[in-house]
Design brief:
The structure holds two protein chains of two kinds. Chain A is mostly helical. Helix content of chain A is 68%, strand content 6%. Chain A is elongated and about 100 Å long. In chain B, helix 3 (91-101) packs parallel to helix 5 (135-147). Classes of the chains: A mainly alpha, B alpha/beta.
Chain lengths: 367, 310
């Protein structure tokens, strides 16, 4: 086993670019996509007919209250021109007791803005309607203001530990997502050395030596596993200690999940190795199939975005889905062994099946 | 020392090696000749225990190695047809790897690496990466890797395919050195007849998975002892001329070559005048006639009806 392992390491020393490139890609992708997820949605707004400057100001204050949107007052001409030329997705025309969303296409952020406008306008118009039926509208508005600022019932949320409840950390999800996604390539291409050596004849030469087949597999698979673990560890350590990401308190558990995930990816790559005759075929298949695994597993989307039963089922077939569930559980919700045993058990099961079928296929091809 | 007994191999119902019987005595150099697809590499794979025979047996010192391949693996060095080396590593690093898999100690390994590099003549270039080597140099390191553990038997599967004449000569000299000076038993497969003639004491000729002839060069030559080869250069010819020549009773075979026509004819017959007459009848001038004793290439042509490189 040792000579096979050392030969892979010697090759790596000669050409370490693959691992370095995927490490850098993980970091860049996380910083690029992870940081943009917490940003406010910017919306241009302009006043419609019959709206005074004070009323416009009041509407903008109300619309910006939630913190998720940034409504900015602009001239009608500029706002519409930007929409027409594709510089912004939409603009909102504010009316006295109504609004208009001007957008070149439906869907995306326009739906979110539409929902937000609906909620705020409905609430405000209800207050206006009640105020019209009171004797003293000014007094009613004052008392409403007091009620809203000091409600008789308040809801306080906290973590089970009593700490302040934080909002969902999409940046952290992106970090895990991109790291697990890109490490699949590193590991897959390392396992592909088995096919390359079979094709070149090195595999047969080793078979004729005192080294056993089990040792050969162990040498290759141990190396691929360790290189994957090395890549994940580098990225997690970098983000935790250098970029200040909060990976939770149980770093050891994260390491165990990552290790199990890498082993399952090694097994999956072994399965693919058994399916193809040449390293080129493996690379082509791997590069086409692996990128569709994270989106199908909902890795790049906020939780609950995928609702289709079929897609949810397909996602269950990929190791990345279960590793993400476990990593997010441990880092964001302080889950322990008892909470994450199910995704870990699924990863383990996949590993056993993939290895069993994969090695069988490789041996049949050699036979 | 080593023998195969009615060795056969079939893939998906197609027989690629059919009842092959061959043997190697200790210290012998034996050639296995045949065109591409003759079944040489499959036979070698079964002898070296990489493939399990569909039928028959491989015996080392009389003991079957089919169920106990470790016995032959200990004494065997295989030089594969492909360059089975890590291109990204240097020649030295490759040899370190192949030495390690044979569990050679550090000092023995270092000594053996320098010895085999000396044999293949690449000691001064051992630190260079394999991917920077020429095809011939790669093949020489391919051989060196098979010699590290002092094998008693070396099987070489077409080790000179696609290389320059200088490297080819070097490889042939290496094989001679191994066999004649170090006493290594060599099984050498090739489709270059002249290599086998030069290197081997005995040879087996394979075609379509079967051994069609075997023996020493002289024994094989006797197959055509009653025949001569005539090289005929004509001033142009057509199918009618060829048909007429084929129709001559003493002409056994006619083959078109770059130089002209190659005829295998019955010895000591008055065939030459008949051929010249035939050419003149069709208005074709005979430019040159060369009569020679049949070579092993001719023997192969005689046995199979095609040349080795077909």
């Amino acid at each position: 086993m040792v000579p096979v392992f050392l030969a892979q390491w010697m090759k790596e020393k000669r050409s370490p670019y693959l691992v370095l490139i995927f490490c850098i890609l993980s970091i860049v992708a996380t910083l690029l996509f992870g940081s943009s997820t917490g940003m406010k949605i910017k919306v241009d707004a302009f006043p419609g007919e019959g709206l005074t400057a004070v009323e416009v100001e009041q509407w903008l204050d109300r619309l910006n209250e939630g913190g998720s949107f940034d409504f900015t007052l602009r001239s009608e001409e500029k706002a519409l021109s930007d929409v027409k030329q594709g510089r912004s997705d939409m603009a909102v025309k504010l009316l006295k007791d109504d609004y208009r969303v001007i957008s070149v296409m439906e869907g995306g952020n326009a739906n979110w803005v539409q929902q937000h406008l609906q909620v705020i306008y409905t609430e405000q118009l209800k207050i206006n309607a009640v105020a019209q039926h009171t004797n003293d509208a000014a007094q009613f508005r004052d008392s409403m203001k007091v009620y809203l600022e000091q409600p008789p019932l308040t809801l306080q949320s906290s973590k089970p530990t009593g700490e302040e409840l934080q909002s969902y950390n999409m940046g952290l999800q992106m970090l895990f997502g991109f790291t697990l996604f890109l490490v699949m390539f590193t590991v897959g291409f390392k396992v592909n050395a088995v096919t390359a050596e079979r094709v070149s004849g090195i595999w047969n030469r080793v078979i004729l030596s005192p080294v056993t087949k089990t040792e050969m597999y162990f040498g290759h698979l141990t190396y691929s596993t360790l290189i994957g673990i090395f890549q994940i560890t580098i990225i997690f350590v970098l983000f935790k200690y250098l970029l200040g990401y909060d990976l939770g308190v149980n770093f050891g558990l994260l390491f165990v999940i990552s290790m199990l995930y890498i082993v399952s990816i090694v097994a999956m790559s072994m399965l693919f190795t058994g399916m193809f005759k040449t390293p080129e075929q493996f690379r082509a298949f791997f590069s086409s199939v692996v990128p569709i695994m994270p989106p199908l597993s909902g890795v790049y989307m906020p939780p609950g975005t995928i609702t289709s039963e079929i897609l949810l089922f397909i996602g269950q077939l990929f190791p990345i889905k279960h590793a993400m569930d476990a990593l997010i559980g441990v880092s964001m919700y302080q889950q322990g062994w008892d909470d994450i045993y199910l995704p870990l058990a699924k990863l383990l099961l996949m590993t056993v099946i993939f290895f069993g079928v994969g090695i069988n296929l490789v041996e049949r091809r050699n036979g | 020392m080593l023998e195969t007994v009615e060795l056969s191999k079939s893939f998906k119902g197609k027989t690629v090696v059919d009842n092959v019987n061959l043997y190697l005595e200790r210290g012998e150099s034996v050639g296995l000749l045949g065109p591409n697809g003759a079944g040489k590499s499959t036979t070698i794979s079964m002898i070296s225990s990489l493939l399990v025979p569909s039928q028959g047996d491989v015996r080392l010192y009389g003991k079957s190695i089919v169920k106990n391949p470790q016995e032959i693996r200990k004494v065997l060095g295989v030089v594969p047809q492909d360059i089975a080396l890590y291109e990204e590593l240097s020649a030295y690093e490759n040899l370190v790897f192949f030495g390690r898999i044979y569990r050679l100690s550090k000092t023995t390994l270092e000594h053996k690496i320098q010895e085999v590099l000396e044999i293949v003549g690449l000691r001064d270039r051992q630190k260079e990466l394999i991917k920077t080597y020429s095809g011939g140099m790669k093949r020489r390191i391919n051989i060196a890797a098979a010699l590290l553990h002092n094998p008693q038997i070396v099987i070489m599967d077409e080790p000179t395919v696609g290389i320059d004449p200088q490297s080819r000569n070097h490889i042939l000299e290496t094989v001679k050195l191994l066999n004649r000076e170090k006493g290594t038993t060599v099984l050498y497969t090739s489709h270059y007849m002249e290599e086998v003639e030069q290197l081997c004491n005995r040879m087996y000729i394979m075609d379509h998975g079967k051994v069609i002839a075997s023996g020493t060069k002289e024994e094989l030559g006797r197959i055509l002892s009653s025949e001569d080869t005539i090289l005929l250069q004509l001033d142009g010819y057509n199918e009618a001329v060829l048909a007429s020549i084929r129709a001559i009773e003493s002409v056994r075979q006619v083959e078109e070559t770059v130089q002209g026509l190659k005829l295998i004819v019955t010895k000591q017959s008055r065939v030459l005048s008949a051929i010249v007459q035939c050419a003149e009848c069709h208005g074709v001038q005979v430019n040159n006639v060369h009569v020679q004793t049949p070579s092993l290439e001719d023997v192969f042509l005689h046995l199979t009806g095609r040349t080795l490189r077909d």
